[in-house]
């Protein structure tokens, strides 16, 4: 439980950006309700070349997880005989590219829609498990390459850089009309943090360490634009270290997921997509990003595919 100035800011955001009850007391989709069939049909019409681009990091034991908060990189086991070809994989559901579901984090011990925290128990999220979103993450994707537009080197943002609304607006203006954000969009925000790890050949503190990310102050933009979901190429979506002094855990998450109902994606590999968008000047595309429908999961792996 937080207190003092931190809680005052959380309280103001909680009141200003709350969507609880907006889609009824039984809702299991949150802001994905903004994404309807008509919007999906329009998104399908954006495919011009039929080129698929995977936005997933590879699943293997080489990184980037290092056990922070119980998350490990995938471990593959091989058996002898006829099972050798298949093998088995043991991994955290949030080990790699993933969506955070509506039960992922609570605000004052309440998950999405003000339900009691007891709905998430030893068996998982018994109400808003990620399986309810299995076919919902299909729609118009928009890439905001903030690292390229705002980064001093035209490539990436430094660790601890807080992306504010003015940075998002500047990126949209620089990229042009195809990056205009509309209701029901799935917005992908590139910081360049993943690219830096690869360039240096070292995961460093990618997992749980300092990183560029969205500022707590962007909650107003996330709410006002009525987007369906948002994702970044970082481990934790929001800027790290956090913008508040003292102890606080994921303040943007605390409001965005349980109060706003906004699913957040993390560890998306946006490098190939960013290159394609920069080359053709088009930053909108059909995005198919279905999570594994693991019953009761509060987050799940995904292999997002952008079609240009």
Automatic annotation (TrEMBL):
<dbReference type="GO" id="GO:0019441">
    <property type="term" value="P:L-tryptophan catabolic process to kynurenine"/>
</dbReference>
<dbReference type="Pfam" id="PF04199">
    <property type="entry name" value="Cyclase"/>
</dbReference>
<dbReference type="GO" id="GO:0004061">
    <property type="term" value="F:arylformamidase activity"/>
</dbReference>
<dbReference type="InterPro" id="IPR007325">
    <property type="entry name" value="KFase/CYL"/>
</dbReference>
<dbReference type="InterPro" id="IPR037175">
    <property type="entry name" value="KFase_sf"/>
</dbReference>
<protein>
    <submittedName>
        <fullName>Cyclase family protein</fullName>
    </submittedName>
</protein>
């Amino acid at each position: 439980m937080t207190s003092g100035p931190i809680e005052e800011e959380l309280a103001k955001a909680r009141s200003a950006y709350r969507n609880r009850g907006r889609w009824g007391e039984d809702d299991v989709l949150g802001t994905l309700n903004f994404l309807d069939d008509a919007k999906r049909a329009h998104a399908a019409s954006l495919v011009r070349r039929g080129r698929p681009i995977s936005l997933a990091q590879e699943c293997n034991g080489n990184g980037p997880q290092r056990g922070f908060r119980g998350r490990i990189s995938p471990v593959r086991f091989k058996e002898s005989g006829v099972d050798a070809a298949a093998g088995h994989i043991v991994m955290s559901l949030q080990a790699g590219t993933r969506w955070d579901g509506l039960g992922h984090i609570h605000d004052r011990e309440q998950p999405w829609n003000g339900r009691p925290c007891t709905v998430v128990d030893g068996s998982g999220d018994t109400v808003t498990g990620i399986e309810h979103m299995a076919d919902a993450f299909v729609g118009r994707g928009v890439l905001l390459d903030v690292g390229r537009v705002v980064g001093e080197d035209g490539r990436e943002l430094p660790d601890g850089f807080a992306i504010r609304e003015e940075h998002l607006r500047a990126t949209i203006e620089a990229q042009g009309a195809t990056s205009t954000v509309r209701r029901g969009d799935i917005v992908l925000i590139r910081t360049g943090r993943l690219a830096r790890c690869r360039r240096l050949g070292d995961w460093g503190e990618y997992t749980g360490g300092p990183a560029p990310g969205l500022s707590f102050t962007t909650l107003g933009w996330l709410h006002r634009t009525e987007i369906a979901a948002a994702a970044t190429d970082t481990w934790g979506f929001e800027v790290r270290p956090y913008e508040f002094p003292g102890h606080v855990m994921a303040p943007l998450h605390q409001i965005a997921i349980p109060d706003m109902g906004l699913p957040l994606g993390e560890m998306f590999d946006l490098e190939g997509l960013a290159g394609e968008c920069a080359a053709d000047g088009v930053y909108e595309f059909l995005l198919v990003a279905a999570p594994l429908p693991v019953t009761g999961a509060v987050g799940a792996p995904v292999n997002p595919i952008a079609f240009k």
